[in-house]
Amino acid sequence: MIICCGEALIDMVPETLASGESSYVPRSGGAVFNTAVAMGRLGIECALVSGISNDLFGEQLVQGLEHSNVATDHLIRSDLPTTLAFVKLVNGHASYAFYDENTAGRMLTRADAVTLPKECHALYFGGISLATLPCQEFYLETLAQNSEGRVVMIDPNIRPAFIADEMQYRAVLTDAFERVDIVKVSDEDLDWIDQSDATLEEKARALLGRGPSVVIITRGGDGALIYLKGSDAPVTVAAQKVTVADTVGAGDSFNAGFLANLEDNDLLTPEKIANLCAEQAREAAQFAASVAAITVTRQGANPPWRDELTA
């Protein structure tokens, strides 16, 4: 089982009504929620650890997980409200305004940290959950208690406007990178993490030096680069050419596809990830790109089911 740890929220997505008026439609989302849903739809045994409200939006999130075959046993339910993210789309690219004060997801504390079941052999962390207190401490403690002997992947999915204390958040990421096996960042994320004048490759190799065995850099339509510890040249994977509806959930779908392919090929152990070869990394990234390519042809975060990839 792969367990995803992080936010589940409601994306308020703009939509034009038949009358021509603009409105917002509530769609289930959140970076880590999207990754869990994508994995479940790919047939990977998966669960989500997150704070979920008992309100109507929380029920919508739970139903979305169950519909996509994601286990809900480890959700932490409360009567606090659900986080809302209002989405602005410009030429298909999304920006967000978050309403997250005193919500079920944000108010998890270190004391809520969970011990995960033995059948869990890989963990995924990321999103805004790592950027805000007190839930940041919950996820860091969950990582500390459960990372030993398991593959850990992180995608910080950095939202600069959401970071209240940049210095503290950078320290959090430094600590997290030391504990994980796989880091996925966009080129924009990496430039925020490393604001030096170094090249993209130099920044990627510096990130490898912090602890992970694999660093993946996604570059939108320019595809992905994968840097492996001990390898001189990056693995390059082209993005698939499709008509883009919007980019909501694209990176999350990529992450799910990457982990799903590693699972398919029995590679999700710390030892195998530490010795991942270029061809194994390329196959995983190509599969991930194919999952993301279908997602971006649809409005909102709506990742494909496994049979859609072979249709």
TrEMBL record:
Pfam families: PfkB. GO terms for molecular function: 2-dehydro-3-deoxygluconokinase activity; ATP binding. This is 2-dehydro-3-deoxygluconokinase. InterPro entries: Carboh/pur_kinase_PfkB_CS (IPR002173), PfkB_Carbo_kinase (IPR050306), PfkB_dom (IPR011611), Ribokinase-like (IPR029056). Belongs to the carbohydrate kinase PfkB family. It comes from Nereida ignava. Keywords: ATP-binding, Kinase, Nucleotide-binding, Transferase. Residues 2-305 form the Carbohydrate kinase PfkB domain. Its EC number is 2.7.1.45. The lineage of its organism: Bacteria, Pseudomonadati, Pseudomonadota, Alphaproteobacteria, Rhodobacterales. CDD domains: bac_FRK (cd01167).
